[in-house]
Specification:
The chain is of the alpha/beta class. Helix content is 46%, strand content 17%. It has helices at 2-32, 51-70, 87-99, 111-124, 152-165, 181-196, 215-221, 233-245, 285-298, 304-323, 332-343, and strands at 38-44, 76-82, 104-108, 128-130, 145-147, 172-177, 202-206, 226-229, 251-254, 272-276, 350-352, 355-360, 366-367, 371-375. Helix 3 packs parallel to helix 4, helix 7 (215-221) crosses helix 8 (233-245) and helix 10 crosses helix 11 (332-343).
């Protein structure tokens, strides 16, 4: 009987907490969306372990909105709610934003949240273009879901092609996280491409239970000329240090999850490369202008997530202009359908800070050339 009372009490508490949170989030969204504007919503981790990603998206998107609005003409407003990288939280936040008047969206930041957000958005026919949700499930079989970032399989294929093309890499290694969809998705594409190229390599793996001690994997890969590492910088910098301690003097090759790793590996002199759509040290004028504006506003350099979010907002604005949409009172479906049709039209492309000549197909995929950032 005591357990029954506990369960009832817990349920009441949960409902009360959810109602309070919903009220608070609704109030936040109401205050953030401007009346005479096209209302852009998003959800992302603003607190928790992945908070740096969500806050970068928030900052990049807000900077884009402010810069675009200064031109006059169409006006935009932006609201992002905290999902702590959780799918359930993202779905709940979608409802809050939609009820507050969201007409179009950046969707979610992390792949699981982006998928949950997109599923609800597609029912309501709300266009979402995620800046960073790279898993295929984020856009698969969803007419209104798009992405600006590279897809996970694309990065695996590109990595295999680049590594094999370098004659200095005779013995190739690969290390991936079996418990992370991002890492596993990229690795499986890498594995398939290596098989297609008929190139053998040494494989090692780890999972959520073993993300600190990489001594076993470092020992197995220490004689390689290059190690492919499709996972985030948190674990990457730990493996690099373990590998160097074992005498490894080869190169490390990663994906866009490496963004930010330079701050953690000042004592490592090995060659490091990674695939990315954004190079903060680029000499391209539009990138330099973005970096300068971001630093002036936030007091730090932008990362890839900020750059992607900035571009998504500008893509939405360009699509609104192309579609000739001017009435802020249009429904979310009307605005989103017009933007979607503009984005997938044959004569629409966008030159941004994460790529030139970006185009999209009806399946939601973005086509753009990658950059290989290299240091050491």
């Amino acid at each position: 009987m005591k357990n029954v009372f506990k369960k009832v009490a817990a349920a009441v508490l949960a409902v009360t907490t959810m109602a309070t949170a919903a009220f608070a989030l609704t109030s936040c969204a109401d205050k953030t969306f401007e009346k005479n504007s096209f209302k852009i919503g998003a959800t992302g981790p603003l607190t928790g372990d992945a908070a740096s990603y969500g806050n970068s998206v928030k900052n990049g998107a807000q900077l884009a909105v402010e810069e675009y609005n200064k031109k006059g003409g169409l006006q935009l407003s932006f609201a992002i709610l905290d999902d702590q990288a959780g799918a359930d939280e993202a779905a709940a936040n979608y409802d809050v934003l939609y009820d507050a008047g969201m007409q179009i969206s950046l969707g979610g930041v992390t792949s699981g949240s982006a998928e949950a957000f997109a599923k609800k958005a597609n029912v309501d026919k709300v266009f979402c273009m995620t800046p960073s949700g790279s898993a295929d499930k984020v856009i698969d079989n969803m007419d209104y879901s798009f992405r600006l970032c590279f897809g996970d399989p694309d990065q695996g294929t590109l990595a295999a092609e680049n590594i094999v093309a370098n004659s200095a890499y005779v013995k190739i290694g690969a290390l991936y996280d079996t418990s992370d969809p991002y890492s596993d998705g990229i690795y499986q594409a890498f594995k398939a491409k290596m098989a297609e190229l008929n190139v053998t390599y040494v494989e090692q793996k780890f999972d959520a239970e073993n993300k600190v001690d990489f001594s076993t994997q470092a020992e197995a890969l220490k004689d390689c000329d290059v190690v492919f590492m499709p996972f985030y910088y948190n674990e990457a910098q730990l493996f690099m240090k373990a590998a160097v301690a074992k005498g490894y003097d080869g190169a490390f090759f990663g994906c866009d999850g490496f963004d930010g790793i330079a701050d953690y590996i000042s004592d490592i002199t090995n060659k490091i490369m990674y695939i990315t759509p954004f190079d903060v040290n680029s000499e391209e004028e539009n990138v330099k202008a973005f970096v300068a504006a971001y630093e002036a506003k936030y007091g730090e350099k932008p990362d890839q997530f900020a750059a992607d979010a900035y571009d998504v907002v500008m893509v939405i604005a360009a699509a609104l202009e192309k579609a000739g949409v001017k009435d802020y009172k249009l429904s979310a479906e009307e605005v989103s359908t017009a933007v979607k049709n503009a984005v997938i039209s044959s004569d629409f492309s966008y030159n941004g800070i994460t790529g030139n000549g970006m185009t999209w197909t009806a399946d939601g995929k973005c086509s753009k050339a990658p950059k290989i950032v290299e240091f050491n």
